[in-house]
Design brief:
about 140 residues, alpha+beta, about 40% strand
């Protein structure tokens, strides 16, 4: 019996509402405790750009990490199809540099073979994810 002459909420409706609230709470608590909520925040992010400087004999290309963003590190790779390139200390067909701060760079120059196509790739890493932040092919 209800007071005031108004009917109460049906037991079926109140049960359905309670079950819905419990499911929503369980999902929210489960994602935070199991760590799935961190994955929803986004992946590794960074801003990486290339700069081309033509030279009289050899040109050069620089990969610059403009902003490290949410990343722990960014790996920049300069790779050719077999032609040698150099960063001043290493001469190879693929040169890689791990960057941990904004403003760091990898500059490579072509070898004596003439026009060289260099594929620059930048991958940003966090402890939980990785993202490709640069893919560019440049001929110098």
């Amino acid at each position: 019996m209800t007071t005031g002459g108004r009917p109460g909420v049906s037991p079926v409706v109140s049960t359905v509402l309670m079950v819905a609230v419990v499911i929503v709470l369980a999902a929210a608590i489960g994602t935070s405790f199991l760590g799935f909520g961190d994955l929803l925040g986004g992946g590794a992010r960074a801003a990486v750009e290339t700069e081309v400087a033509p030279g009289t004999d050899d040109g050069s290309v620089t990969g610059v990490v403009l902003d490290i963003g949410s990343s722990d590190r960014v790996e920049i790779t300069a790779e050719t199809g077999g032609d040698d390139i150099t960063d001043g200390t290493t001469t190879n067909s693929a040169i890689e540099r791990t960057v941990t701060e904004s403003g760091e760079r990898l500059t490579v120059e072509e070898g004596p073979t003439g026009d060289t196509t260099i594929e620059f790739t930048g991958v940003a890493y966090t402890s939980r994810s990785e993202s490709i932040v640069l893919e560019r092919e440049i001929t110098i």
